[in-house]
Amino acid sequence: MIDVQTAALLCSGCFILVGLYAAIFLDNIIKKIIGISFIEEGANLFLITLAYKPNGVVPILLPDMSPDWFITNSAYPLPQALVLTSVVIGASTLAVILAITMVLYKKHGSLSASKILGDSNE
Q1: At what angle do helices 29-51 and 4-25 cross, to 10 degrees?
Q2: Distance CA 118, CA 16 (A)
Q3: H-type helices in the chain, by residue range?
Q4: Phi (first) and psi of residue 112, to 5 degrees
């Protein structure tokens, strides 16, 4: 049976691979943006997975806990803080990217990256 941490690592790898495929090989700009979001969420899941500790406790020291027990059993809080910051920055960046995409659509009348960039392959 596969444990939770290994499953989360595999899932984060799949997110990153699907996102890379979409960002590199798909022509539609919206699909590229969704792919980049997949890469971001895969990286966030990877960071959270690294901080996972089986049977760990929330990293808040309560008065009845001994410091030695707390150090041994608490989850590592830094990746959690990094992911929280990443989610906030990612949401605002996604809003700006989608606004720029709307402007591109109004100007060019298409969401095809090759048409917007003016490739001669079409």
Answers
A1: 160
A2: 29
A3: 4-25, 29-51, 67-73, 78-108, 113-117
A4: -80, 125
pLDDT tens digits, residue range 62-108? 888 898 988 888 888 899 899 999 999 999 999 999 999 999 999 99
CA–CA distance, 45 with 96 (Å, rounded to integer): 23
Distance, CA of 66 to CA of 93 (rounded, Å): 42
What fold does the segment set 4-117 form as a domain?
A: Helix Hairpins (1.10.287)
Which residue intervals of 26-59 are DSSP H helices?
29-51
Distances (CA, A) of 76 to 5, 42, 52, 84: 14, 19, 8, 14
Q: Is 75 helix (H, G, I), strand (E, B) or coil?
A: coil
Q: What is the pTM of this model?
A: 0.83
For the chain, the distance separating the N- and C-terminal CA atoms, rounded to the nearest angstrom, is 50
Amino acid in position 77: P
Amino acid at the residue 117: L
